[in-house]
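Assemble and predict.
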Amino acid sequence: MFLLFAWIYCSAITHYLASDSTLDKWLWPFHKPVGLLLLVLLILRAGWSLLNQHRRPLSISRFAAAGHGMLYALMFLIPLIGMIRQYGSGRAFSAFGVPVMEGFEGEKIQWMVDLGSNFHSLLGWTMLVLILGHVGAVVMHYRQGDKQVLRRMTRGVRQH
Ligand code: HEM
Ligand code: HEM
C-alpha cells in the first residue's frame, strides 16, 4: 500500500503541476485504477485489523491513535468519494481491464459530481499533509531513542 500511495501521489502532484506533460500522460491513466485498488486493500486491511483486535499492540499514545484513526478515515473516504463522482458522471469505468461501472445515458447525477469536485482533491491534499506529519512523528520518536518504532510498522511487536 505504501508503494501504491507513493504512485498515486506522484500522479496527483504531476497532474496538479504539469497536466498534459509527458509524465502526466504516463501516470494519470493509473490514478483511478490504483485508487480503487487502494480502497479494496484498505477494506481488507481494516477487516484483518478488526479480526485481530484482541491481539493488537496498544497505541503509543492517544495522539498517535487519533492520528492513525484520521489516516484510516481519509484512506477510506478519498477513494470512495472518487468512485461516487465517477458513478455520478455516468461514464463507464474499468480498472486493469475489469469492468467496474457500466455508465448510463442521460444527465449526470449532480450531487455526486459536486461531492467529488468539492472534497476529493481537498481531502487528498489534507492526507498528504498528515502523512508528512506521520513520517515526521516517526523520525521524532526515533531521535528520542525509540529505536523500535519503525519495527512496529514493518514487522509488528512481539506478543507476551
Ligand atoms: C487513496 C486514493 C486516492 C488518493 C490519495 C487521491 C488523491 C488525489 C489528489 C491529491 C488529487 C488532486 C490532483 C489535482 O489537483 O490535480 C486527485 C484528483 C483526482 N482524483 Fe484522486 N485520489 C485517489 C483515488 C481516486 C479514485 C478511486 C478516483 C476515481 C475513480 C479518483 C479520481 C480523481 C480525479 C478524476 C481527479 C481530478 C480531479 C480534478 O481535476 O478536479 N481518485 N486525487
Ligand atoms: C515513509 C513512510 C512511512 C513511515 C516511515 C511510517 C511509519 C509508521 C510507523 C512507525 C507506524 C507504527 C506506529 C505505532 O505503532 O504507533 C505506522 C503506523 C501507521 N501508518 Fe505509517 N508510515 C509511513 C507511511 C504511511 C502512509 C503513506 C500511510 C497511509 C496513508 C500510513 C498510515 C499508517 C497507519 C494508519 C498506521 C497505524 C496502523 C495501525 O496501528 O493499525 N503510513 N507507520
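The chain has a mean pLDDT of 94.
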